[in-house]
Amino acid sequence: MVKKANKRDENRKQKLYILQKIKEKKSVLFGAFSDTLTKKDKQNAWEEVCTYGKSIGVIASNKNGTYLRDTWWPNLRKTTVEKIDNARQTGSGGGIGKIIDEVDSTVRDIIGKESPVIRGLGVEDGEISNLKLDVRATKESESGTTEAESGPAKIDSNTNVNIRQDNQNTEGAENNVEINDTSMNSRTKTGNVKRQINLEKIIWRKNKAKQVLEARSSATAFSEKQRLQIELLKVEIYKTKLEARELEIKLGIHPVVTHQSIF
């Protein structure tokens, strides 16, 4: 048990080393493309993090920045999101595998605490903007009445919106609304998480396919140029043969060797 605990702690420390590097380069690794931030900049940044991981023995020597970006980081992020989701669900089991540790906290810092990923929506920052949840409208649609008609309505548990009213405050009660993301069934959540995890990989594959098509197009153009140059050379050779034969006829010279052997 002690050996397992020590190994687990060592593994956690190793992950933290890499995550700290990712956190330092967060603006480049996850920033939006611009005139000053290109795909090459991102690739170089991932390679730098991977090189650091290799230097401390955390990342295998045969791995590269693509592995770190498309496999290592998404898997770690998925584990953290699942832990946070588990902690939010009432009555969920605990255990060492469910405790949010330093690694999860660092991943959450990298993603952002207010990130839609952390909030359980399964999308990256920047994919949605101005996301608003109108709790009052939800209350009215569930109860079928307005707040003015029936007073503050108690939201049914299926809406997963917990409203706690502090009636002790004599100057006016404030509704503390806690949004609980357990409204999604397990199938929807799983699908969203998978789509989010594969988003970067899909984008990378599209860019790769574009590069391949561009390379093929360039190769085709080069081949066409070569073909035309060969055709031109054949025409020039044929012209030279005709001119040589014409001179031979004028001079009355019988060719010693055939023109075909000469040219």
From TrEMBL:
Protein's UniProt keywords contain DNA-binding: no
Domain Myb/SANT-like DNA-binding, residue spans: 13-78
Biased amino acid composition, Polar residues: 156-191
Keywords: Transcription, Transcription regulation
Keyword Transcription regulation attached: yes
Region listing for Disordered, in residue ranges: 136-191
Its biological purpose: Involved in transvection phenomena (= synapsis-dependent gene expression), where the synaptic pairing of chromosomes carrying genes with which zeste interacts influences the expression of these genes. Zeste binds to DNA and stimulates transcription from a nearby promoter.
Quaternary context: Self-associates forming complexes of several hundred monomers.
Name the UniProt record assigns to this protein: Regulatory protein zeste
Originating organism: Hypothenemus hampei
